Amino acid sequence: MDIRAIESAEFAETQAIYAHHVLHGTGTFEEVPPSIEEIEGRILALTSRGWPWLVATDLTGVLGFGYFQQLRDRSAYRFTAEDSIYVREDVRGQGVGKALVTRLLEVAAEQNFRQMIAVIGDSANVGSIGVHASLGFQRVGTLRSTGMKFGRWLDTVYMQRALGLGDADLPD
Hints:
Number of helices: 4
Oligomer: single chain
Largest sheet: 7 strands, mixed
Strand order of the largest sheet: 1-2-3-4-5-7-6
Radius of gyration: 16 Å
Order of helices and strands: EHHEEEHEHEE
Strand content: 25-35%
Number of strands: 7
Shape: globular
Structural class: alpha+beta
Helix content: 25-40%
């Protein structure tokens, strides 16, 4: 498995992976899959700010993708990132998500982020919660019944992990 920056030829595979999660999963609260053009716009908006959009690939193509962005646009959040990870259905549970999160943590620390937040759709999303916990994320809160998808209420789980020195000092 290779983890690297996405290439434009992989936008369609990335969109297909995400569309599957939108249509069949509760990890995202989107209900209508975005078009390839919308995914391309999201990728370019993120990478133009210097943040990574990574893919995990092998000979079968894109296995999954992940990215991070500043938690919120307000300047006080400039040292806090939020990650997002989506894995192709036929390779879930095989370490793809964990490898992507691991690399995102490294890149975020290199970019002087001090905290990484995982905002996880559905408190029953044991895969994502487990991957993040295995990498040192702590569950810091659950917002109950904040999403409605597939005719049921869904929680939003917040997990957090310090990067580098975390809050032990003030960044430059």
